[in-house]
Design brief:
By secondary structure, this protein is α/β, with parallel strands linked by helices. It is built from 16 helices and 14 strands. It is globular.
């Protein structure tokens, strides 16, 4: 089992960080590590949004020094106080220090249901809170569903190549088959239906029982946004082949290019009439870790299920109950992400403004980093139109390929390690996400406020790296 975003390069970055923290002299030509290896916004100076944190602080505080303090209105806006009171009531008056229902607090799940209906223009009341589980991040929900799908070593799940390592690592852990389908880099990491058909046919020919198909939209590590037509094609493909669709939608707020839109798999299934006809099995995932919320440490996420038999949901409930419940603070943050201040509330305009500023910063850096990397001779980078990452390909000099073979790891691992030790920039080798044979590269976030200097340091380093390994 390998998990690249926390792998060899990240471990070395942590070691160097410890060295830099010591008061003794060190040999590194930098004074800190720039962690661009993982989508962890607050770790690279993204500010927390005020209103959710105000409500969260009131949920954490005992009532006498929180919502019932005589001067609470001088310290908190009224809409934060009222929301905290409402949420504490939903928690049975126990606050977030007690276990909750194993699916999550009912009112918080209702907030998710109404959020989905509003987002997709669905019929009011059509999303059932009983089909929603609140989890400790989307990763836990994805792992739970994959555990249910892989009943034995004959089973497999179709996953995109490149893909987020959660999928490949979980399949390795469960003993299932990774059934890869390749995204087309030359068409902006587009999805080709013929490639899906090829992948499924090849797997069946090998005797693999393909149980599901995963999509990541917007893409990680590739940063593309699927069109509504592509999403509908995928939904129809899964319905036709009786595959459970796992739709990873944690970056749904992160769509930057004018004219692009996030189009959910659930909306596609609804518009195609597949939900009404009970002709699709769909699990959709979202998280508070991405978007502009960026609250990775809160560990809040959800899965909403459509067309899944009640018997299966009962089994999933038992899986969730075996952990008692997801963390209550993460559940609360999911509720706050899905239902912010209402129009007319005292915090509405400031909350909206904070989110807009964060989004515009992300959009600016997405363009800066992807264009900057693409301008480096020897590198090629598709536009980062969504998510939080750029995923350039890198031409490797012959000496780097030879040296990596001798060291026993991939050429892009050698490159990433050299980049880290020379500049303090921590990226993830592209080999950790899967890629076509002969391609090399890396994934970097564009979260850091140092993104402009990161690109220039990568440019300078690549020139010296190529000279170092010219032959």
């Amino acid at each position: 089992m390998e998990y690249a975003v926390r792998g060899k390069i990240a471990i070395e970055a942590d070691r160097i960080t410890q060295e830099l923290s010591k008061k003794t002299k060190h040999s590194f030509p930098f004074d800190h590590i720039v962690f661009t290896n993982i989508g962890n916004p607050h770790a690279v100076a993204q500010k927390a949004i005020t209103w959710p944190r105000q409500v969260m602080s009131l949920l954490q505080l005992p009532d006498p020094i929180g919502i019932d303090h005589p001067n609470v209105s001088k310290m908190y806006p009224e809409d934060a106080i009222q929301r905290a009171r409402e949420m504490k009531a939903s928690l049975g008056g126990h606050g977030i220090g007690a276990y909750t229902h194993s699916k999550g607090v009912r009112q918080f799940r209702e907030d998710v249901a109404r959020f989905i209906e509003h987002r997709d223009g669905a019929e009011p009341g059509s999303v059932d809170a009983e089909n929603i589980f609140l989890t400790s991040g989307a990763s836990e929900a994805i792992s739970m569903l994959m555990t249910a799908l892989i009943k034995d070593s004959s089973c497999g799940i179709m996953i995109p190549i490149p893909q987020y390592p959660l999928y490949s690592a979980t399949l390795d852990l469960l003993g299932g088959h990774k059934v890869g389908y390749y995204l087309n880099e030359n068409s902006g990491w587009g999805l080709n239906m013929k490639e899906l058909e090829r992948s499924l046919a090849d797997a069946k020919a090998k005797g693999i029982n393909v149980a599901g198909l995963a999509i990541i939209n917007p893409g990680n590590p590739t940063g593309q946004v699927l069109s509504r037509e592509q999403v509908k094609d995928i939904v129809l493909f899964c319905a036709e082949h009786n595959l459970v669709l796992l739709s990873d939608e944690v970056y749904q707020e992160n769509v930057y290019r004018e004219g692009d839109e996030f189009f959910s798999a659930r909306r596609a299934a609804d518009e195609l009439g597949l939900i009404k006809d009970d002709a699709i099995q769909l699990c959709s995932f979202h998280s508070v870790s991405k978007g502009v919320t960026g609250e990775c440490g809160q560990r809040g996420g959800y899965v909403e299920m459509v067309g899944i038999d009640n018997d299966v949901i009962d089994i999933l409930y038992k899986l969730a109950a075996s952990k008692l419940c997801s963390n209550a603070s993460g559940q609360a943050m999911v509720s706050l992400m899905c239902r912010g201040p209402s129009q007319g509330d005292v915090s509405y305009e400031s909350h909206k403004k904070e989110k807009r500023i964060l989004f515009e910063g992300l959009r600016e850096r997405a363009n800066l980093v992807s264009k900057g990397l693409d301008s480096i001779p020897g590198m090629s980078c598709q536009p980062a139109t969504g998510a939080m990452y750029a995923f350039p390909s890198v031409d490797m000099p012959p000496g780097a390929i030879k040296a990596s073979e001798e060291l026993g790891f991939s050429p892009d691992t050698l490159y990433s390690l050299d980049l880290l030790q020379s500049t303090g920039i921590c990226v993830v080798p592209a080999s950790g996400f899967g890629q076509k044979k002969g391609r090399f590269g890396f994934r970097t976030t564009f979260l850091s406020l140092e993104s402009k200097s990161v690109v220039e340091k990568i440019r300078d380093h690549y020139a010296s790296f190529c000279a170092k390994y010219a032959s």
